[in-house]
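haha ok so turns out i had the wrong file open the whole time. this is the CORRECT one, sorry everyone. sequence first:
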Amino acid sequence: MKLNLKNPLVFFDLETTGTNIVFDRIVEISYLKVSPNGEEESKTRLINPEMPIPPSATAIHGIKDEDVKDSPTFKMIAKSLAAQIEGCDLAGYNSNRFDIPLLAEEFLRADVDLDLMRRKFVDVQTIFHKRESRSLSAAYKYYCGKDLENAHTAEADTKATYEVLKAQLDCYPDLKNDIAFLSEYSSFGNYADFACRIVYNEHKQEVINFGKYKGRLVEEVFHEDPGYYGWIMQGDFALHTKKVFTTIKLRSATLRK
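then structure:
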């Protein structure tokens, strides 16, 4: 089924040094940009993570230090990549929980202020898990009737994710061919930051989602515990989480004047 798009939709996949969005880095990125008129544009490139690639990561994606030693760093390609996905919605496989948060971290580390929270996200894995609960290779076999060759390479996983989403729309008549619907259907919560440290309540107020202040309004905690913000800024939290906390603090300070 051809996707019904209002904006370009970028399917993408990352291969990384690990699974920690705060400390790990991208070693390969592949994207497939699908335009509303059906035109497709794809690109894959290796990234120098500026850190050793652990053997455990290489065992999964096959990328070694020597493969990326002459490749550009993320900072070197950040602006051009941001331009490529400007105005686009994003899709991937397990992308809401990992790829998008890590991509946001890399942009912030590169000092590129790209507000990904304004985009719509379609997570094909979430749709699959709500319907069948399998891996990407199994999803590809189930929906597309083909074996996924070169699994865990960014390019193969990206193209497979695109094909699986189209097949899911063919398979389930109640899935609307609409990116806003698919984004909401595949979302995993009403979070204010990609690391899920802050959630919105029913009044669209930011609430802390961890630690001793879990369930409390962020603005109330800032007022009652002035040192809490400093603790967040000095802690091992994602840059995007710190950015959201800072936005709330600045807004709160303005309102209290």
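The beta strands are 9-16, 26-34, 40-46, 89-92, 121-123, 198-200, 206-208.
again sry for the mixup
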